[in-house]
Structures are given as C-alpha cells and as structure tokens.
Design brief:
By secondary structure, this protein is of the alpha+beta class. The protein folds into 2 domains: about 140 residues, no CATH class; about 80 residues, Alpha-Beta Plaits (2-Layer Sandwich), CATH 3.30.70.260. It is built from 9 helices and 6 strands, in the order αααββαααβαββαβα. It has a 4-stranded antiparallel β-sheet. It has a two-stranded antiparallel sheet with strand order 1-2. The protein is elongated. It starts with 7 loop residues before the first helix and ends with a helix.
Length: about 230
C-alpha cells in the first residue's frame, strides 16, 4: 500500500506554513507572558491545518459519484471547537475579565491554520501580519484617544490595618497612574475590619488594566468603578 499520496508534498508545505505562522502569533503571546503561549498557538494552528487538509484530501480514495465530498463539514467543526478552547483562557477575577485578547489570538491561529490547509497561504500571511498590527500598533493608538475612564471613580474595598492601600497605590504608580483619594469609610463586618475607599486615577493606560492589577493586591476584597454622573460629580 502506498502511504504517500500525490498531494503529500502540498500537504507538508501547507501544514508547515500553518505551524510557522501560528508560532509567530504564539511567540508574541509568550513574550507578554500570557496563559496561552507559543506551544498552544502552534498546536491550534497546525491542528486546524491538518483537519482542513484531511477534510480536503483525506477521503479522496473513498469518494465517487454516489458519495460526494463536502470539505466544509470538518472545517466547520474547527470553528466551534476552537471557541470552547478560547473560552478556557477567559476568566473573571473580582469582576475584572481577563484573557479576551489571548482567546482572540487562539481564534486567529485557528483561522490562519485553516487558511493554510485550504491552500490560501497569502491570506494566512496577511492575517498574521494584521494580528501584529492589532496587538502592536492599535494598542498605542488607543491610548491617544480620549477615554471615558477619566470620568470614572474607582471603589476599592480592602482589609484594614495591613498596608493594603499603600500596596495598591504603589501598584498604580508603577503602572503610571496618579491617584487622588476622594473619601474613605469603614465597612461594617463581623469578621475583620474593612475599608471602602473612593479614588480617582489618571494615566495613559486603560483603566481596566489598573483594575486587573489592583484586584491582585493581597488584602483587596473588591474593585469596582462608578460614573461621576451617578455619584453626583461633575
């Protein structure tokens, strides 16, 4: 039995292209120390390409006039399957959602792999380049846009007497935010003394990045934002 089909060289080149391009996407995530990095993206992209190649070429020997081939059937399952995989890297920590960009890059890796598997390598290369445009150029551009964050007040609830507020302010300063305290009040609790502080933060980075960082400070029990209009502010 001949294990090497007439399309073997084409399949090898397309799968290798998917591996290379999806690895480039994963490398960017790895450098940023995200939960899904080089290996995950390389496997997702290459796997998507292999599934697409199997769908396109794998059943050529068993098809005939009475058994038509529909290459889109397996490819359609890739889209739904990768959706579940991407959802696995999205999580919420104290009302702060993280992992959305990494989930989107996993989706992109699958799309790049499918494009390579379908023989659309120029499209796959274009998609990879656009990925780097999105994560490398759009983020600095977004920082130049006027942000509604400046009209938001941040409320932080934390354990009192443990230096939590000092650590939270240090984390904000390290990220380039200036902070001003609007008010503080004790929160009645029968287990441990707690404080709710209302603050204003000013910086070039998105406020959501700061909220995610503040939620990681030991002793912080909750982080939330409110609009000035709701608070009666200007």
């Amino acid at each position: 039995m001949d294990f090497l089909s007439d399309t073997f060289l084409t399949e090898l080149v397309l799968a290798s292209a998917a591996f290379l391009l999806s690895s480039l996407i994963g490398l960017e995530r790895q450098i940023r120390q995200k939960s899904a990095g080089l290996r995950t993206h390389a496997l997702v992209g290459t796997g998507s390409a292999v599934f697409t190649l199997v769908s396109a070429y794998g059943f050529a020997t068993v098809t005939g006039p009475d058994t038509p081939l529909d290459p889109s059937r397996i490819a359609a399952q890739i889209v739904s399957g990768v959706g579940f995989l991407g959802a696995g890297v999205i999580f919420m920590n104290r009302d702060v959602v993280r992992g959305l960009t990494t989930a989107a890059t996993i989706w992109m890796s699958a799309a790049v792999g499918m494009a390579c598997g379908a023989g659309m390598v120029p499209l796959a290369v274009t998609a990879t380049v656009l990925h780097f445009v999105a994560v490398g150029l759009l983020a600095p551009l977004a920082r130049l846009l006027p942000l509604a964050d400046r009209k938001r007040t941040v409320e932080i609830q934390y354990l009192d007497g443990r230096g939590v507020l000092r650590e939270a302010l240090a984390a904000a300063t390290e990220m380039g935010f200036d902070a001003s305290i609007l008010s503080t009040r004790k929160v009645p609790d029968g287990t441990a003394p707690q404080v709710l502080v209302r603050m204003k933060f000013h910086g070039k980075a998105p406020l959501r990045d700061l909220l995610a960082q503040l939620s990681e400070v030991p002793g912080v029990l909750g982080v939330a934002t409110t609009d000035d209009a709701q608070d009666g502010g200007d």
